[in-house]
């Protein structure tokens, strides 16, 4: 998308957020998962985990907003050409984990990828 929209002067920035201390959990009504998704299902575990973290998140949302603003406005030239912007230590770690998984997948699939070329 970044390549396709850049000729129109549109900047694409993918922000990989960690957990930030906002009131989004408190403002969200608690909805009990339907029977098939109750514990020990991952849906119930995720809801419970997020509720337990409320008010204890390490990320400062005001600092995140400043970094995002500085990236898109050009105030921080180091971030001028960044496509992905991980924010928060946990956001950084999650993004690095995804990159490592993608690298492993690509290493495994290289032969299959090259074997799909035409032989003529």
What does this structure look like?
The chain has a domain at 2-22 and 57-114. It is mainly α and 120 residues long. The protein contains five helices and two strands. A two-stranded parallel sheet has the order 1-2. The longest helix has 26 residues, at 89-114.
Write the layout of secondary structure elements.
Layout (H helix, E strand, L loop, with lengths): L1 H5 L7 E4 L6 H4 L14 H12 L7 H13 L10 E4 L1 H26 L6
Parallel strand pairs: 1-2
Reported for the largest beta sheet, the result is: 2 strands, parallel
What does the overall shape look like?
A: flat
Helix content: 40-55%
Report the total helices. 5
Strand content: 5-15%
The assigned structural class equals mainly alpha
- Write down how many β-strands occur, each being a DSSP E stretch of 2 or more residues: 2
Distance between the termini: 33 Å
Query: Which H/E pattern describes the elements?
Result: HEHHHEH
* Radius of gyration, taken over Cα atoms and rounded to an integer in Å: 20 Å
Question: What are the key terms here?
Answer:
mainly alpha; two-stranded parallel ribbon; 50% helix; 120 residues
Q: How would you summarize this macromolecular structure in one to three sentences?
A:
The protein is mainly alpha-helical and 120 residues long.
């Amino acid at each position: 998308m970044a390549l396709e929209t850049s000729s129109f002067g549109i900047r694409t920035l993918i922000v990989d957020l960690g957990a930030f201390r906002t009131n989004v959990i408190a403002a969200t009504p608690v909805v009990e998962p339907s029977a098939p998704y109750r514990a020990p299902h991952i849906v119930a575990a995720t809801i419970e985990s997020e509720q337990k973290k409320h008010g204890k998140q390490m990320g400062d949302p005001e600092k995140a907003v400043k970094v995002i603003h500085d990236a898109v406005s050009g105030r921080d030239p180091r971030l001028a050409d960044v496509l992905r912007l991980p924010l928060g230590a946990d956001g950084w770690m999650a993004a690095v984990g995804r990159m490592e998984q993608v690298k492993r997948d690509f290493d495994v699939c290289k032969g299959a990828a090259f074997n799909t070329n035409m032989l003529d």
